[in-house]
Design goal:
Belongs to the wax synthase family. Residues 180-265 form the Wax synthase domain. Keywords: Acyltransferase, Lipid metabolism, Membrane, Transferase, Transmembrane, Transmembrane helix. This is Wax synthase domain-containing protein. It is found in: Membrane. With 333 residues, this protein is an all-alpha fold. The protein has three domains: 1-100, no CATH class; 113-177; 184-321, no CATH class. Helices cover 68% and strands 2% of the residues. It has helices at residues 7-24, 32-37, 39-47, 55-76, 90-98, 111-114, 117-136, 140-159, 163-174, 190-197, 200-220, 225-251, 260-277, 284-287, 295-321, and strands at residues 101-103, 175-177. Strands 1-2 form a two-stranded antiparallel sheet.
Length: 333
């Protein structure tokens, strides 16, 4: 696996950007001012996936770094989101920014956690630095040496006063994983599938960054709650479609967009709008004109619709254009 020539520089810039955000954002007034100061950071996040030639790492970094981290920073500009409570610690801020985790809520058993913060900091940063050196190195001796050092470090931790156990307990006590999905196979409607069950991490961020502001803004200017909700759903899925097109751009090594993914989400949002408009809560008159569909039948219809349209507009275009190893990458600077 080969990496972009400027990979180590980009990793350093990414870490420096998190420090910049962690310590500078609380000093600036929330809103547009913070967004303007974050423009260079958004650029770094957008070019970061190009350091990887592997499709697995490229797609993962485009999702977690380019998409999720960007939305977390946007929410931070308005004192919202998971990063708002993590600006007091650079380590917390960095880990929460790039990983699907959040700070665990304080409990009455937090005393032993504070005594292990030193172990958490040392252990996480040591392993992170060693992993970066290993993945970004091009020399054989360094790729051989770093795994040996990691193994020796783990052996040392496991053999000295149960440090490894205390480190694991400290990490688990301080952070918790964000729920990524909630049994999407049980979705009985498109609204439940996209809004509550599928990709909860992205859905929650889209709801906070797009859906809530659009809906609340429209209601404030006099738009009816029903129309505001429909427009907010459409706007949210449009943004989701654009972000998926961006991921597709990274996966295909910079191939020209075909907009199949955007069309997929446009189709989903239109059907969701129709689904909500024809529901009993939106139009009670129509709800009395037919018998409600059995939940099991509704589930099969929902999953069938998503599967067929996903296969047609997502899977097939991806398989046609995907490149597992990028031979060339777009010039990013």
């Amino acid at each position: 696996m080969e990496f972009h020539n400027n990979g180590l520089i980009l990793v350093s810039l990414l870490v420096a950007s998190f420090g910049y955000c962690c310590f500078l954002m609380p000093l600036l007034p929330k809103g547009i001012t913070r967004l303007l100061f974050l423009l260079p950071v958004f650029y770094i996040l957008s070019i970061f996936p190009w350091i990887f030639s592997s499709i697995a790492l490229r797609s993962l970094s485009s999702f977690l770094v380019t998409w999720i981290t960007s939305f977390k920073l946007i929410l931070l500009c308005f004192d919202q989101g998971p990063l708002f409570d993590a600006t007091t610690s650079f380590l917390d801020f960095t880990l929460i920014a790039i990983l699907p985790i959040k700070l665990r809520e304080a409990t009455q058993h937090d005393d032993h956690v504070h005594t292990s913060n030193g172990l958490v900091t040392i252990g996480v940063w040591l392993l992170s630095i060693l992993w970066c050196l290993f993945t970004l190195s091009t020399t054989i001796w360094l790729q051989f040496l770093v795994p040996v050092v990691i193994i020796l470090a783990l052996i040392y931790l496991s053999s000295t006063s149960s440090s490894a156990t205390r480190l694991a307990r400290a990490v688990l006590a301080r952070y918790e994983m964000v729920q990524l999905s909630d049994h999407p196979e049980n979705s009985s409607s498109l609204q439940k599938f996209w809004g509550r069950r599928w990709n909860r991490l992205a859905s929650d961020l889209l709801r906070q960054a797009i859906y809530d502001p659009v809906r609340n803004g429209l209601i404030m200017i006099g738009v009816s709650p029903l129309a505001a909700r429909v427009v907010a759903v459409i706007a949210t899925l449009m943004v989701s479609g654009l972000m998926h097109e961006l991921m597709f751009y990274y996966i295909t090594c910079g191939a020209r967009p075909t907009w199949d993914l955007a069309l997929f989400f446009v189709l989903q949002e239109v059907c969701m709008a129709i689904e909500y408009a024809m529901s009993g809560s939106a139009m009670p008159y129509w709800a009395t004109r037919w018998e409600p569909v059995e939940p099991s039948v509704a589930t099969w219809l929902t999953l069938g619709f998503v599967s067929v349209t996903g296969f047609w507009l997502v899977l097939l275009p991806t398989l046609r254009k995907v490149e597992y190893e990028c031979r060339t990458v777009p010039k990013v600077w």
